[in-house]
Amino acid sequence: MIDYPPIVLEHLETLTDRTGVIQHAIFSIPNRRTGYTTDDNARALLVALQEYERTGDRRLLRLVSTYLSFLHYAQTSSRRFHNFMSFDQIFLDDEGSEDCFGRVLWACGEALATNIHENVKKVARRLFDDAVRWLPTIGYTRGKAYAALGCYFYLKGEPEALSIRTHIERLADALCATFRTNATDDWTWFDPYLTYSNGIPPRALFLAYQVLGKDEYLDVAKRSLDFLNSVTNIDGFHQPIGCNGWYIKGEERAWFDQQAVDPMASVMANLTAFDVLKDRHYLYQAKMSFDWFFGANSIGEALYDPVTGGCYDGLMPSGVNLNQGSESTICCLLAQLAMAPYIPLLKEDTSDTKPETASSDLADR
Fold first, then answer.
1. Which CATH architecture describes the domain 10-364?
2. Which residue blocks in the chain are alpha helix, DSSP H?
3. Where are the domains of the chain?
4. What is d(CA 180, CA 363) in angstroms, rounded to the nearest whole number?
5. Cross-strand bridge partners of residue 112
6. pLDDT digit string (tens) for 42-95?
7. Residue 239, class by beta-carbon neighbours within 10 Å (0-12 exposed, 13-18 middle, 19+ buried)?
């Protein structure tokens, strides 16, 4: 078993200034010319909240305040969100994507579920409540799934919020309807393609099942996650869909460039499946996805940098992309935070049992 490193936030702090977390890096040095994104600051808020919950370290409250303040500034007068901001704090778009919108709701929802002081929760609640009017307009699978995560954590913090319960039901129903439309016997997935962050929709449905208990949510969550695992956990390694072409149904999949956001999402999805189903198979699938960061991948090179605590930006056929930007670093931290409570369970297992993995011929489906 890999000797996993401790969770350290030094590189995230290096990338963070008084405005927020800077989007990209030149090797491990912040590249200020690239500015900021709401996407990255929402994910960074998740890290700060979860690490505060784990450690109670009051120094993390500064990071929580910085990232939440960025989200507040990014909210438009219509109560949607900008995404891209230049270094001189000028937004470069009129409105961010549905994914961006959903990620903000996820982060604000987690703030409400975290044991943190009420001032933080009041801001997060206001951002969420002001934006929630737009939930019925979300059309894309991942936007719906991110928003459903936000609703789940909102309800975890405020179980009596009946309107949010209605929203998560509508989002989960919509995900299941999309699945019924596109799934076939050999392609049990929500869309006729696999792209990025593929673990998010199954996870959203597992969590919706925990709230509402609808059997369809559990069935679709399990079938879609099993399919995703069969496609990405191959020959003993996690091999996420490459962003250089993705995987279109009936066509050849892209094997590279592999991005950290994908194993992170698979870690979370499989751990949630393990929590719900109590099947250790999913714990081992999560471990396989997690180990991608530490060298158990198709080229045998670690993406985690033990010197900085950062994560390299991607896995290429020739090796790792040596830049350590915010998305990759934050996604590695989120994967570490998700896995931390489960590592003792893995250490207790002294058996030689290994998870079933697909062989590479599955890529030819």
1. Alpha/alpha barrel (1.50)
2. 10-15, 38-55, 60-74, 98-113, 118-131, 141-157, 162-182, 200-212, 215-232, 261-277, 280-291, 326-339, 343-348
3. 10-364
4. 23
5. none
6. 999 999 999 999 999 999 999 999 999 999 999 999 999 999 999 999 999 999
7. buried
